[in-house]
Design brief:
Oligomer: single chain
CATH class of the domain at 86-164: Alpha Beta
Structural class: alpha+beta
Number of helices: 11
Largest sheet: 5 strands, mixed
Subcellular location: Cell membrane
Domain SHS2: 7-195
GO cellular component, one term: cell division site
Strand order of the largest sheet: 3-2-1-6-13
Distance between the termini: 21 Å
Strand content: 25-35%
Mean pLDDT: 89
Keywords: Cell cycle, Cell division, Cell membrane, Membrane
Function: Cell division protein that is involved in the assembly of the Z ring. May serve as a membrane anchor for the Z ring.
Low-confidence stretches: 385-414
Amino acid sequence: MSKSKTFVALDVGSYKTVAVIGDLDETGKLHIIGFGETLSKGIEKGAVVNPSEAIKSIKEAVATAESNSGFRISSVVLNIGGVHIESKNEKDFISFSSSNKEIDQNDINALIEKISEKFKNDNIQILHIIPKMFVLDDDEIVYEPVGLIGSKISGEYNVITGKVNSISNIKKVVEQSGLGVMDIVVNPIASTTSVLYEEEKDLGVAIIDIGGGLSDIAVYKNGHLEAVKSIPLGGNLITKDISFRFKISKDIAENIKKQYGVASIEFVEFNEVVEVKSREDEETIKLEKYEIVETIEWRLTEMFEILRKELEKTGLYDRLNAGIVLTGGVANTPYIQHLAEKIFEKDVRIGKPKEFKAFNEKFYSPEYATVIGCLQFTASALKDKHVGSNSSEMFNFNISDTFTKFFDKIKNLF
């Protein structure tokens, strides 16, 4: 790699909107060089509910990232989530007229096209087609068929799709913020990229990214993605529970959750009291910390029980030998690992982003797993393709034929 490459990930979440600028240096190492975030407005559970408010949040996060980096942002890789995201395993094959055909990339592209045809629907859009394995001549299982000799190649892929209208709505508010969308990465794939280890994928693992409005799940076994799912459960529910139980504003409830919240009453003294304001400019009230934590534990327990049932539906729950990896903002809750292990009855670890350099330690927190993973997904693609960029300004993928073709391939071949 002769030049550094600079690019941006944008995560428009239910709780906050984050723009992160990454630079891929000459050695292939990813550095975080710019950052902006703001509380999200106009987004609920991954869906746009108020476009003008969502645009304001995006512009604010991007402006902050530009200000502290010195780069102008023109295009972004967009994280996307929502209950409309689904995945399905699909198989197909191609037979050749010659019994000793050398398989090339055009053959794999043709196989991918056959898989894609099965998802032709005006209401859904393919976001990723991820290879699991190939079978050569109905006999040998291979993982990189290009260059091998055969008369038939079969392939199995995990195809991730989303609803066209939902995708269009989030893209539209990004574009109306003055940005181009150079590619889309679904949230669980991004989180996986930054958090999981290859040996975990081989052994069998489920990653659960719990954000403000959604819990995104990805399940791996034998090194392959098996299932992706998004559930409308997140930390905002805990905030609402605290607000309702103690008759306080959601903003104050959110602060209480962050300042005093832990995941289990096992780690709280019964007689501990905290003082808060019930509303802005109102008198101080006293709350039992035990009751605050009790409220949090109730909701987390319910969420984990629902998530366990979703994982059991995959048929792989008993084969998750590497257990569960929790990430996302809610994973910062003290003692959440302890509670999760009780509910899931498996080993649980807290997943933090890895394998990058940053100017602030906070980027290694679980809450940034998705947006950092989006950068890493893009960085991996750029390293493979040796794509150059300008050194003083964000390069614009949308005006370059090379970039357009490149990212079309990435969506299909990741």
